[in-house]
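Work package 3, deliverable 3.1, input record:
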Amino acid sequence: MWRNCVRLAKGLGRSAVLHLDPKVSRCGVVRGLSPTAPCSLLWNSVTWLSQARQSKDYALPNSSWSQGMMDLYNRFLEMCKDGTWKRIPSYGNSVDHIPESLKLAPEKEQKETRLFSRNMDTEGLGFEYAMFLNPSEKRMVCLFQPGPYLEGHAGFAHGGSTATIIDSTIGGCAIFVAGRVMTANLSINYRNPIPLGSVVLVDSKVDQVEGRKVFLSCQVRSIDGQTLHAEATALFIQLNSTKSLQQQMSSQ
Amino acid sequence: MWRNCVRLAKGLGRSAVLHLDPKVSRCGVVRGLSPTAPCSLLWNSVTWLSQARQSKDYALPNSSWSQGMMDLYNRFLEMCKDGTWKRIPSYGNSVDHIPESLKLAPEKEQKETRLFSRNMDTEGLGFEYAMFLNPSEKRMVCLFQPGPYLEGHAGFAHGGSTATIIDSTIGGCAIFVAGRVMTANLSINYRNPIPLGSVVLVDSKVDQVEGRKVFLSCQVRSIDGQTLHAEATALFIQLNSTKSLQQQMSSQ
């Protein structure tokens, strides 16, 4: 586990080294996960995340990405070559991410809707992000560059936009271990505001799994690791594909 | 306090009665607020919220509002007539809400930016909402109709969009008692997903003030009060107008 952290730090190089001393490392031990049983589930989830039909993948570089965003993206891409990390595609509609076999009744394609974090067509104005999954560490990171339409206090990202990118990243991590999930609790400590146009790394991991409950944690840091912008904990609930969302939440 | 709740329930009528039994009432006692000292601050804050320069007010009805949204809006407007409630305007840029005297150095107008919750020009696609303040109860409510571009799970609002409207409403309540503030913690329990296009009431109140810290809580319910969609607690920090945001967050 620690070797993977060191590899990540090496892979990122000096200009974008994650702060990985033991006090702030995100490489925690995953408690409650059996070493054998979840494997097929894990790999099914990975497959699922890559199985979406042909739609525009918003997680690919575009001209609005800063040099810092591009550098970090390319370094993660490099670390994908040996299979340690996997790039996660991202589409404009939540249904585009789900294979037919995992759809909930009465879930249908609703092409007039848009995934909240991918609802802008003009590049660079809103959420610019790309996620990478480390299956062996049950860890999902998100390179996030907030655009000028995500403003809260003048010049900084709105607390709601930070909550959105955390929910999406940590949710992606929960999906990896439990398939379809729903946020039950999200608690965020905001430490330092995120300047619009800057690049931050949202780093989430699974802490524990208890039955249908998945407990996770997350940190949002500047790419040099020196500034902690936010930290969060979350609880996600695994969904049953034979029930509607409303039924599942009422039977929690 | 309780009389105001009853008046609100009466004002809303049978078709949109808020669930106001003692177990779930939002009319809590405000601890830590002196009955005299904060008054001028309270009224200054109210004035501040109405003092913005001439910009489009997005909190006025438009053709995308459902009948349920319009009915609720009109009932709150009716309750504004005796001064119990006040309608809060809402602009497309955070700087538009701030009078010159309260701006933080080096805060400037940035017209190319947009307030996150008001970043869409097409009516009905994103956040449709209007807020009302009850000064005597230190309570802010928000009528919220999530549009199809706020999707998370198919057909339902993204957890991040719910976090955004909670942060904005509860933040407005904190502004009322403490002037300029910043979110330090936001913890949300998601109980039932919010269908896109439905109307919910985000009901927030100040629970306690300790120095620069403002503690608040919030519930998100269907307009008939029967469905609890989410509940949240939050901590906001009062800002000092002579310091930048970065300085303030690092000296918390």
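Chain A touches chain B through 55 residues (CB under 8 Å).
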